[in-house]
Amino acid sequence: MANTTYRIKPGECVASVAFKAGLLPDTVWAHPENSELRAQRRDLNVLQPGDELVVPAPVPRNQTHAAGQKYRFVRKAVPALVRLVFYTPQPDPPPPETNMTGGDDTHYEDPDLEVLPEQRLLSDAPYRISIDGEWREGKSGPDGIIEVPVSPDAAQAEIEFFPGTKEELVFEVALGHIDPPATVTGARHRLSNLGYPCPPDGAEPDDVSMATLTQFQADQSLEPSGNLDEATQAKLVDLHGS
Question: CB of 198 within 8 A of CB of 212?
């Protein structure tokens, strides 16, 4: 059987493609014909739709065992692990107020000055999560992180924090649907997830996204250039986790 070239679809990564082919993710990713893609993407879990991945032909391996005995076989790299960190949703800013005092001390507050309340981690919070329709329960860690074993080709997750209470928060996550950090769409999604709202659509930068990126750079003590340089990409990945 010959190697095949597979074109990545939205929501797919090396792990999901390898799972369907009956291979280990590292086997596929380390194939010599994927060297250019490795240099371009760097992370086998974050690919761009349209990327071409060479999938090597499986190599059969025979095992000999004595009859009449029980044997346990474990498939490597299954399940995969999803790791998510959660913050409270960013509240809408209050409407701008204009304060005025009479006389010579007249003062106006700038109505364009927007101060957003700080987000906080959802720490030690009870939750239940559905992965492709299968529900399970748990509690987030002190750092707001939850880790859940999933099938490598899992596509959709729904997470309910404080389920059944008035504080209930619901998040929907399309697993794998985030582009590489070097792309405009990938940067936008990471910024939005980190509390820097910007429009997620479009492959070209716009004024809002560039202003948001500049604010992020300033907050992280980076050069506030508005350009998606390597230092900014690295900081986005570091804070976002992927």
Answer: yes
